[in-house]
Write a structure and sequence with these properties.
The chain has one domain: Maltoporin, Chain A. Strand 1 and strand 2 form a beta hairpin. The protein has a 22-stranded antiparallel β-barrel. It has a five-stranded mixed sheet with strand order 4-10-11-8-9. It has a three-stranded antiparallel sheet with strand order 1-2-3, with no helix packed on it. It contains six helices and 41 strands. It is mainly β. The radius of gyration is 25 Å and the shape is globular. 5% of the residues lie in helices and 57% in strands. The chain starts with 8 loop residues before the first helix and ends with a strand.
Length: 697
């Protein structure tokens, strides 16, 4: 729901007696409107992000940050009703969410051609380290915005990929009451209840938020569920006028399908035959997190901050597949278990001072992260699903990782100039265990930095440039050959270097932000996934192999809140993703499943006056251009076009304040074309539709 659909009945009722008395005296208070976002760490207005700590750890206007940043705001999330984080990012420039077709199990996002799902996913500025299959799931109803920092960001956030990071901003307590109950029904027998309650308690020093979802749903894939139970309590307490503590937590248990693949009847060709066993197809993901954020103003110019979060993910994956026997299909089953734990602590100090005409905002700090995972898997079985399910799965490997980092950021401003100087040094200790519990220790360390310049030509236009680097120790096993399972080993750390120039522009007299940039990213000792023979690799379809990559391209993106009640976001990306070192026969080629061109536009029109007042109309197009289906560049993925629609109505226009109806249709034209990555082909989810009725009070 957007701003104009947020009339709250409770607020109107609370003021009813006073309003009647004032109305008698000729005073009209108007309608009370509230929004769901807290504007705590990210200030947003409609579709436009105005300022935040997303790139600098310092509250900074987005237009002054010398880096390309995309933000999906709360209003855009409410208008589009995404069901996954990938859905929420579908209209952002430089992001690729289509590499593996429909697979709701994982938030497998690519930024500027580089995978960002192991080391590039952050929650509230703290890294979420994913294991091989135990991934943290980010449920859209639990967050109020998503910020995408394009290009290397290790200098401020430590271990993270060359393409950038995705930072999910959790819903936080508000100091004003906001309550919502939402019922959703949809295709594939979807039934969902969501609630979101927040507001002050007592004298106002304490505020709370309680957000939850319970969902029972199927998907187009037989036996592949989309069930969820999630609860996310949060508290903020103003201990003193200078000290604030925020507690953020979440527990979620989801059941999705264990198999998302279609049978590839020939190389580069996915059939319509779904290979999952509907009677053995549960992927149960249980996760929880708890943490705090403390901010203390030591003086008027010195602020201390600390963030801590502990989290766990337990994955129980039942999967199945088929193989050609020559006289039909045979079936195999597998049962994979994985437990993952993460502890992250970040402590920083911010101070401000001047040297001549330059104003400095300096942030320095230290962070520590400990992550580990254990896997239990004994290979696939060919007897029956019941026999595979009954078998005890042996310990098959794991990894412990400790990461320490120190960082310093100096943000200088003088007149139209803004300068960013950031530096960081990381130490990473990793122990990788094999099935016999024998550990192999590795130590990595490295420096990452950023130099950024921004110049405001006038109040509407600024230009920027930056040079930044990244440092990432490789998680999991890397195979030198995708035909030899004995070639696995721990990988060398990945390093990236970006050069970027661009501009940021606001249309005069409007609430808007247009960002355009040219970039060049060189990555060494990276890894990509390559298709392997699952019977040779113990049921694995893809493994990591070493690659050096170079990403060059152009991005332009704009967000607009027009005075005629129209909100708009649009983007275009050109990307040249070259393999400089890789598997035999791939050097000089383009990386598979990486479209050269991508574009999108989404608009939502919600008139506040006239005959259509109360209605909302949304429509969008997403274009994904041609890409190669394998790294040998032997065949291509066709370009694809997706359309999305939205329709809403605010019943406040007919006397039912706070009540709203919304219908969303995704992939209107029911495009189920294939997408191939590293030679294996997947299919896109077809048309889906939801209808939601929400009451805010």
């Amino acid at each position: 729901m957007s701003v104009s659909r947020l009339a709250l009945l409770a607020g109107l009722t609370a003021f009813s007696t006073t309003s009647q008395a004032q109305d008698a005296g000729g005073i009209d208070l108007g309608t009370l409107y509230l929004e769901a976002e807290s504007d705590d760490t990210l200030v947003q207005n409609g579709y436009v992000a105005e300022s935040g700590r997303q790139a600098t750890r310092v509250d900074t206007a987005i237009r002054d940050i010398p880096q390309n940043i995309s933000t999906v705001t709360q209003d855009q999330i409410e208008d589009q009703q995404p069901r996954t984080l990938l859905d929420a990012l579908g209209y952002s420039s430089g992001t690729n969410v289509n590499a593996f077709g429909y697979d709701s199990r994982y938030d497998a996002v690519y930024l500027r051609g580089f995978s960002s799902y192991y080391n590039g996913l952050f929650r509230d500025g703290l890294r979420q380290v994913n294991g091989p299959s135990a991934w943290y799931q980010n449920h859209p109803y639990s967050f109020e915005a998503v910020s995408v920092l394009k290009g290397p960001s290790s200098s401020m956030y430590g271990v993270s990929g060359s393409g950038g990071i995705v930072n999910v901003v959790s819903k936080r307590p508000k100091d004003e009451s906001f309550n919502e109950i939402q019922l959703t029904f949809g295709t594939d027998d979807r039934k969902e209840l969501a609630f979101d309650f927040t507001g002050p308690v007592g004298d106002g020093r304490l505020s709370y938020r309680l957000t939850g979802v319970t969902r029972d749903a199927d998907t187009p894939l037989d036996g592949y569920s989309d069930d969820l139970n999630m609860i996310a309590p949060a508290l903020t307490y103003e201990l003193t006028d200078r000290t604030t503590i925020t507690l953020l937590s979440e527990y979620a248990k989801s059941t999705r399908g264990g198999t998302a693949s279609y049978y590839n009847e020939a190389y580069g060709e996915a059939s319509d035959y779904y290979i999952g066993d509907p009677d053995y197809n549960d992927f149960v993901n249980e996760q929880w997190r708890i943490g705090y954020e403390v901010e203390h103003a030591l003086t008027d110019t010195i602020t201390l901050r600390q963030k801590l979060r502990y989290s766990e993910v337990d994955a129980d994956l039942e999967f199945s597949g088929v193989y050609d026997t020559g006289a039909g299909f045979g079936r195999y089953w597998g049962h994979y278990l994985e437990d993952s734990e993460n502890l992250t602590i970040d402590t920083s100090v911010e101070t401000a001072f001047s040297t001549g005409s330059w104003v400095h905002t300096v942030v320095g700090g230290f962070d520590f992260a400990r992550s580990s995972y254990e896997t239990y898997y004994g290979g696939v079985g060919y007897v029956s699903a019941a026999a595979t399910d009954a078998a005890d799965q042996p310990y098959s490997g794991g990894q412990d990782m400790d990461q320490y980092g120190i960082y310093l950021h100096d943000q200088l401003s003088s007149g139209p100039w803004t300068v960013f100087l950031s530096g960081r040094y990381d130490w990473v200790e990793t122990t990788t265990f094999d099935a016999a519990h024998d550990g192999t220790d590795t130590s990595d360390e490295g420096f990452s930095g950023r130099l950024g310049l921004s110049y405001a030509i006038n109040s509407d236009l600024s230009v920027f440039a930056n040079v930044s680097s990244s440092f990432v120790p490789t998680t999991g096993i890397v195979y030198d050959s995708n035909t030899d399972p004995d070639s696995g080993h721990t990988g060398d750390p990945t390093r990236g270097l970006q050069k970027e120039i661009g501009l940021k522009y606001q249309l005069p007299g409007t609430e808007s932000l247009i960002t355009a940039s040219l970039f060049d990213i060189q990555q060494e000792d990276g890894v990509v996934f390559q298709t392997v023979d699952s019977t040779v690799f113990g049921g694995l379809y893809q493994v990591q192999v070493p690659y050096d990559l170079r990403s060059r391209g152009f991005e332009v993106e704009g967000q607009f809140n027009f005075a005629n009640d129209l909100r708009l976001t649009t983007s275009y990306t050109y990307l040249d993703m070259e393999i400089e070192r890789g598997a035999t026969g791939t050097e000089g080629n383009q990386l598979s499943a990486t479209p050269e061109h991508a574009a999108s536009v989404w608009a939502f029109y919600e008139p506040t006056n006239g005959a259509l007042a109360g209605w909302g109309f949304g429509a969008g197009l997403r274009y994904v251009g041609e890409s190669w289906g394998d790294d040998e560049n032997t065949f291509k993925n066709d370009d694809q076009l997706y359309a999305d629609l939205s329709l809403s109505y605010d019943f406040g226009r007919v006397g039912y304040d706070g009540l709203g109806l919304q219908v969303n249709v995704k992939n209107v034209f029911d495009n189920t074309d294939q997408t191939c990555s590293a030679g294996y082909c997947y299919r896109t989810e077809g048309r889906t539709a939801t209808a939601s009725i929400a009451y805010r009070f």
